[in-house]
């Protein structure tokens, strides 16, 4: 510690800053992948829409800055898909220099139909991102699930991918998802869940917990839906008890408060969003009674 900082501390000048700073430096909450026990930081980056930019240095630079800050804060999960425009190419540019790839848990998807189509699409994902191994590949929106899962299991056996999963993002897909969760051996499921969109908690999340399947939560803000709902409204006082300082933290801590959830993956393409959202994965999470209070607050808006 520098003398001046020590002197300031002795004088008590930095005291009010300390709790906030200590919280900011604390590690992220980590949750196990049930099938392996591997621990994952409980917040990830979603790359749809905002990472779909022209993969030129000037367009990639701010996204690289967001990813770097995320990793600096202890984050590792990044979710992408071949169908997210140029997002995989952009990640390829970000991974091309430095050691970010080694620090990231990389999740992509397959959305082509047919064995050949699926294999070709996954092969292109490896090439576009310039990686030898993809940590997780999930069947996107249950497209040709049986065929694609067979391909993914083969790739897992050959150690080209480490985990296999499926994704949905609409409540209307839950009827089709349920038998897949019941009958297929899966490592991950990705599902829509938010404080104002709680249908997944009725059947999908309990079933995932029962089957030992890790849960990634997509659209945890409903894109702009929740932000619009709380626009101009202050955070309720009760949210301070579990460390919420912003609305995004309120929305993410709600999701993380569900014991079956492994990690929400909000879209975050800005350093400020990364810092804000990572703070949700630190400190205390709301308990069951507090989560009911959060639901009631949002329902009453
Ligand atoms: N079927 C599937 O597999 C499926 C479907 C949908 C999504 N996903 C995955 O889930 C991820 C998340 O979904 P999403 O990005 O569509 O929706 P989302 O996470 O609910 O919302 C993301 C948007 O919230 C805003 N935001 C994020 N952090 C913020 C903060 N701290 N403060 C203020 N605003 C903030 C940003 O809006 P602005 O950029 O407008 O400022 C951002 O684009 C996707 O990126 C994708 O990886 C998967």
TrEMBL record:
<dbReference type="InterPro" id="IPR053135">
    <property type="entry name" value="AKR2_Oxidoreductase"/>
</dbReference>
<dbReference type="InterPro" id="IPR036812">
    <property type="entry name" value="NAD(P)_OxRdtase_dom_sf"/>
</dbReference>
<dbReference type="InterPro" id="IPR023210">
    <property type="entry name" value="NADP_OxRdtase_dom"/>
</dbReference>
<feature type="domain" description="NADP-dependent oxidoreductase">
    <location>
        <begin position="43"/>
        <end position="287"/>
    </location>
</feature>
<protein>
    <recommendedName>
        <fullName>NADP-dependent oxidoreductase domain-containing protein</fullName>
    </recommendedName>
</protein>
<dbReference type="Pfam" id="PF00248">
    <property type="entry name" value="Aldo_ket_red"/>
</dbReference>
């Amino acid at each position: 510690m520098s003398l001046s900082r020590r002197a300031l501390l002795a004088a008590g000048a930095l005291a009010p800053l300390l709790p906030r700073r200590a919280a900011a430096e604390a590690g992220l909450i980590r949750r196990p992948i049930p099938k392996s026990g591997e621990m994952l930081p409980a917040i990830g980056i979603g790359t749809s829409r905002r990472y779909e930019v022209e993969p030129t240095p000037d367009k990639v630079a701010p996204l690289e800055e967001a990813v770097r800050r995320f990793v600096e804060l202890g984050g590792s999960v990044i979710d992408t898909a071949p169908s997210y425009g140029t997002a995989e190419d952009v990640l390829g540019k970000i991974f091309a220099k430095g050691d970010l790839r080694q620090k990231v848990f990389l999740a992509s998807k397959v959305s082509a139909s047919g064995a050949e189509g699926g294999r070709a699409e996954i092969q292109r994902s490896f090439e576009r991102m310039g990686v030898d191994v993809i940590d997780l590949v999930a069947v996107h929106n249950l497209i040709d699930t049986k065929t694609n899962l067979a391909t993914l299991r083969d790739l897992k056996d050959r150690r080209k991918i480490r985990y296999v999963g499926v994704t949905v993002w609409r409540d209307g897909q839950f009827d089709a998802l349920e038998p897949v969760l019941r009958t297929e051996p899966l490592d991950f499921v990705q599902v829509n869940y938010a404080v104002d969109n709680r249908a997944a908690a009725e059947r999908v999340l309990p079933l995932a917990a029962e089957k030992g399947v890790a849960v990634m939560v997509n659209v945890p803000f409903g894109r702009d839906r929740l932000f619009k709902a709380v626009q101009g409204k202050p955070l309720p006082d009760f949210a301070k008890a579990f460390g919420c300082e912003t609305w995004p933290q309120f929305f993410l801590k709600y999701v993380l408060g569900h014991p079956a959830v492994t990690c929400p993956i909000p879209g975050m393409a800005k350093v400020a969003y990364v810092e804000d959202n990572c703070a949700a994965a630190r400190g205390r999470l709301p308990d069951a009674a507090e989560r009911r209070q959060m639901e009631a607050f949002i329902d009453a808006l």
